[in-house]
Structures are given as structure tokens and as C-alpha cells.
Design brief:
The strands form four sheets. Strands 1, 2, 3, 4, 6, 10, 20 and 22 form an eight-stranded mixed β-sheet that branches. The chain is elongated. The chain is of the alpha+beta class. The chain is built from 16 helices and 22 strands. It folds into three domains: 37-157, no CATH class; 166-176 and 320-562, no CATH class; 194-274 and 276-317, no CATH class. A hairpin with a 7-residue loop joins strand 8 (322-326) and strand 9 (334-343). Helix 6 (200-208) crosses helix 10 (258-269), helix 7 (213-223) packs across helix 9 (241-255) and helix 15 packs antiparallel against helix 16 (519-547). The chain starts with 8 loop residues before the first helix and ends with a strand.
Length: 571
């Protein structure tokens, strides 16, 4: 054995004495030892956190990949709907252009843009006529960290649907012929709050001038100093009748409609026109409401008569909803002629002019007209004043876009379902307090036809006018281009309104002095006299309603434009 160095034996002994054996021996001691537990737990949780982080990254990546796939599917569906006969080729070209390697299926069908139908039921696969496509895409998602855990491959699937943008601009109530300038001036002046002095030529110029809706909305934005935003911002803004007239004057001046431009400038010179007009109740732009102000190519070219815009604005501008007009000079030979007009509120969620797809509706305003005519008697009625109080209650006329067919060259046919305004007319007395109450049917007492000291003649008559069902009216592409107006009429009244009422007049005669006159000849004399003024009064009634685009038992429909452009996302 080695010989220890001198002086080292004690040191070695002390070193050996300081060496300690571990406190654990065997398996039991190992499990009882707590040294290094924090490090072990830290390592374990680090492993778990790295796993969760890896899963989160893969999930986020798959979500982003699916979003991208959905965006491509939307673009492909729009492309397919824009060219339905070659939808598969359009979808394939879209996938290639976006460098998307995905499996796809294309299903043609019919999409009914009806808000009354649940959105899941609006598309019918393989139903004709085709106006929509449904595109489904599938691809394998990319995984990064999940492969370490032997995760299965993720499959991504998306679906999108687009319909062909079949849109039409149409209106109900557009008859603007044979206007009586005296009636029109007084009615429009009262409704607009200004003095109107237009002649028949002016009204004909307004009726024949078509104003492009998009340009008018842009011009209104300029008038109210709205420099940015969308068309809907203009519709929702505070707009006056003067703003609308000035905008139309600008548009007609730029388009060269000299007669309409002169008439509109005359209106502006009259001053006033400060009444507020809810522009959104005048025109509904549908999907084009999001077009930016000043967009040089808004995507539609709807044109509306300047007279129709003016008369509709006048209806909407009247805050009191009632006007009184003295028309004594309108019918020669009358002692007096007074006209009262009350206008009801516009139906909710509808406008007078609308641009939209199938099922879009337009309606006219509800109106009530009271006409009181006085005429001097002749013969048996000499020195007596004969009165004829007439009340006409006119419900709104309505129209709905029923269908639209498109060809490669554009719209080939537009079908509108129209229903004239149901009306009732009376000869009778109506209380002033009830005149502007549209919540109930008018209650009229017998009219005092003659109310003299010795002779009293009371009378009553009632006529119903209107259709209870829609009538389908079709417009060809040429009709749309020419601005053709088509009329739907009711068959429930023959001849003129006033003549029908006078013919059905039930008269009661009271003669206070016996022997003065017999009731029979007196009734005949009253009927003959009222018959002579029936035709002129009809002209006044129809002239007043025509000025406002309202018609008795008739609905005039015009399609102002049709659009068969590219597809739009639907569903």
C-alpha cells in the first residue's frame, strides 16, 4: 500500500469524516426526497404551455386560412352569378386568379329576395329561372406544431351564394297630362308654402323632363353642403323643398331641358319653399344607398319626371297635412267652389319611387278631398242657391315588383303587380273635426242641397271605387327605355264620378208652404241643375288629384330603369 506523506494522516481522516452519505437509500427514500421539486414542476408546465401555444398558433392559422377561403368563395359566387350559363368556368377562373387550390362545386338555382321569407329558404337549388349560384369550396388546412402530437389533417369547408342583381326603379301614380294650371298652382302653392304662377306650358315642360335620380341626389348634397358620405346620408339629411327644386333646376340645366329648367327657376323666384321634405320617403335607393356622393358611375340610370318629383315633394312637405283652396274662378257659372285637401301619413317602410329587387313596394299617399260647389238656380229654383258638398276618400295605390327577366343584352321584361287606390265618394255633410282623421271611415249626414226659408232639399249619395286584387303589368325593355306609362283601372264605376253620384242621389224635399211647388218637379229641377255642373266638377276633382299624382280607381305605373348587372351576395 502507498506510504502516506508526513503530516497528512490527520487531514485525510478529517476529510473522510466530513463526507456524508445521502439521506435516502433505495426507492422509499427517493420518493420522500423534496429537493428540486420547483425545477421539475417548472419544466412540466413549460412543456404544457408550449403545447397550448402550438395549438393556438395552429388554430389561428386555420381560422385565417378559412377567412381567406371564404373571401375567395364570395368573389367566386359573385363571378358565377354574373355569368350563370358559364358559372363553373367563372368560378375556376376566380380560384386560379387568387392562387387558391381548392375543390369546388357550383349549384344553380333561383333566389327569392323576399324579406317575408326566412333567409335559409330563399334559395331553391336547380329551380328555374336561374338567377343565383351557390359555390362550395373545400381544401386541406395547413398545420405547423400539431404534427408533433400526431394530429389528423384539418379540412376547411366554406359556402357562399350570390344572386344576379336584377333591380328595377318604378313608381305608381305618374299621370301628368291635362293639368289645369289654376288648380295646380293653388294646390302646389298651398302645399309648398309659396306662390306658384306656372302656366300649362310650364307644367308640360316639367312633365316631359326626366331627371336622373343619381345626379339629383348629388345636386341635393351640394345644396345642403354635404361634401362626403353616401347617398343614404343625403336621404337622411334635413332637406327642404327649395333644396330639391334647386337641385332639379341644376340637373335640367345641365341636361338641356330648357322648359323644365325655366319653370323650376320661376318656382325658386317665388321664395318660400322652406318646408322640410323627408327625402327617404320620396325615393328608396335600395342597394344603391351606399354609393358615395359624387361617384361618376353609381351603377344605375333611373330617370323620373320632374313633375312627379315636384308633386310628391309637395305632398311630403305639407306639415299640417291639410290645405284649403278657393277655386271659384275655375268653373264659370258657379257662385262658389271651395276645395279642402287632407293628406294622410305615408305607409311605413315604403317610398313613392323605389329601386330594388323583386318584392320591392311603392305606394302613394292616402288623401281626402272635399269639394263644395254653389250654383244659382233657374226656373223653379230661381233666386235659390243650390249646394253640392262632395267628399272623396282615396286610399293609397300600390305596386310591387313581381318579376324581372334579363338577357345578354340587358333587361328583357319587367312585371309589376299594381292595385289602384280603393276609394269611396259621397254627397253629404262632413264635420270639420273629422276631415283629417284617417283612422276611421267618414260618417256623413245628409247634404243640405237647398236650405231656404220655405224650401229645403236634403240629399245623400255613395259610390265605391276600387279593385281588391293586383293586376300584372308587363314592360318590355323598349317600354322601359321610352318611359312608357301603363294604367290599371277598376271596372266598378261607369262614367264620371260626380255624374254617378248625382245619378244615385237620394233627395228629401220639405216644402214649408203648401201649394208653393210640388216635390216631384222640384226634385227633377234639382237633378237637372246638378247634372249640368257634374262634368266641370269632375274636371276639378281629377285635376286636383292628377296634380298630386293620385288617381281615382286607377293606378299609373312606370318603370324608370332596370339593371341586370353583375351578381350580388345574397342569403
Amino acid at each position: 500500500m502507498p506510504f502516506p506523506l508526513p503530516g497528512c494522516s490527520s487531514s485525510l481522516s478529517r476529510a473522510k469524516a466530513q463526507v456524508r452519505l445521502p439521506r435516502w437509500r433505495g426507492v422509499r427514500g427517493f420518493f420522500r426526497n423534496r429537493d428540486g421539486s420547483i425545477a421539475i414542476m417548472t419544466g412540466f408546465f413549460f412543456f404544457v404551455m408550449m403545447g397550448l401555444l402550438a395549438i393556438s398558433i395552429d388554430m389561428a392559422s386555420l381560422y385565417l386560412e378559412r377567412r381567406t377561403l371564404q373571401g375567395v368563395a364570395d368573389i367566386a359566387a359573385v363571378a358565377g352569378a354574373s355569368d350563370i350559363p358559364r358559372a363553373e368556368a367563372a368560378v375556376a377562373a376566380t380560384l386560379a386568379a387568387n392562387d387558391m387550390d381548392a375543390r369546388y362545386t357550383v349549384v344553380r338555382g333561383h333566389y327569392a329576395a323576399d324579406p317575408q321569407v326566412d333567409y335559409t329558404q330563399r334559395f331553391t337549388a336547380n329551380a328555374t329561372p336561374y338567377n343565383a349560384v351557390q359555390v362550395s369550396l373545400q381544401k386541406t388546412g395547413r398545420l405547423y406544431f400539431a404534427k408533433v402530437f400526431n394530429a389528423q389533417t384539418a379540412t376547411l369547408g366554406v359556402q357562399s351564394m350570390a344572386a344576379n342583381a336584377e333591380l328595377a326603379a318604378f313608381s305608381v301614380g305618374t299621370r301628368l297630362l291635362a293639368l289645369r294650371d289654376g288648380v295646380a298652382n293653388q294646390l302646389l302653392g298651398k302645399l309648398l308654402g309659396t306662390r306658384v304662377e306656372l302656366n300649362v306650358m310650364d307644367y308640360q315642360g316639367l312633365a316631359s323632363a326626366d331627371v336622373q335620380v343619381a345626379r339629383m341626389i348629388d345636386a341635393v348634397a351640394t345644396e345642403i353642403n354635404l361634401k362626403a358620405g353616401t347617398f343614404q346620408d343625403v336621404l337622411d339629411a334635413s332637406v327642404t323643398a327649395g333644396d330639391i327644386v334647386a337641385a332639379m333646376a341644376k340637373v335640367t340645366g345641365e341636361s338641356g331641358d330648357a322648359a323644365a329648367n325655366l319653370a323650376l327657376k320661376r318656382l325658386l323666384l317665388g321664395g318660400g319653399l322652406g318646408a322640410k321634405v323627408p327625402l327617404s320617403s320620396l325615393v328608396d335607393l335600395g342597394p344603391f344607398s351606399t354609393v358615395a356622393i359624387g361617384d361618376p358611375a353609381p351603377g344605375f340610370d333611373a330617370r323620373v319626371s320632374a313633375m312627379q318629383i315636384l308633386s310628391s315633394s309637395a305632398i311630403l312637405a305639407n306639415g299640417k297635412r291639410q290645405v284649403q283652396v278657393d277655386l271659384g274662378a275655375e268653373v264659370p257659372g258657379l257662385l262658389g267652389l271651395k276645395l279642402d285637401l287632407a293628406i294622410g301619413e305615408m305607409p311605413q317602410h315604403t317610398a313613392m319611387i323605389a329601386i330594388g329587387p323583386k318584392a320591392t313596394r311603392v305606394r302613394t299617399a292616402q288623401a281626402r278631398l272635399r269639394l263644395v260647389a254653389s250654383v244659382g238656380g233657374q226656373g223653379l229654383l230661381k233666386n235659390l242657391s243650390v249646394n253640392l258638398p262632395l267628399v272623396v276618400d282615396l286610399a293609397h295605390a300600390q305596386a310591387q315588383l313581381a318579376s324581372m327577366a334579363c338577357s345578354s343584352s340587358g333587361p328583357s321584361r319587367v312585371t309589376v303587380a299594381a292595385r289602384p287606390g280603393i276609394a269611396e265618394a259621397w254627397i253629404g255633410e262632413m264635420r270639420d273635426a273629422d276631415f283629417d282623421d284617417f283612422s276611421r271611415t267618414p260618417q256623413l249626414s245628409r247634404a243640405k242641397i237647398i236650405d231656404a226659408s220655405l224650401i229645403r232639399v236634403n240629399g245623400r249619395a255613395h259610390v265605391n271605387v276600387g279593385n281588391m286584387s293586383d293586376t300584372q303589368v308587363s314592360f318590355t325593355g323598349l317600354d322601359v327605355e321610352r318611359g312608357t306609362v301603363k294604367r290599371v283601372s277598376t271596372s266598378s264605376i261607369a262614367g264620371s264620378l260626380v255624374s254617378s253620384l248625382v245619378g244615385d242621389l237620394d233627395l228629401e224635399v220639405q216644402v214649408l208652404t203648401l201649394g208653393l211647388v210640388l216635390p216631384g218637379p222640384l226634385i227633377s229641377a234639382v237633378g237637372d241643375l246638378l247634372g249640368t255642373i257634374a262634368e266641370p266638377l269632375d274636371a276639378v276633382v281629377y285635376g286636383a288629384l292628377t296634380t298630386l299624382g293620385l288617381h281615382l280607381g286607377e293606378a299609373d305605373i312606370r318603370v324608370h330603369g332596370a339593371h341586370c348587372g353583375g351578381g350580388m351576395l345574397a342569403g
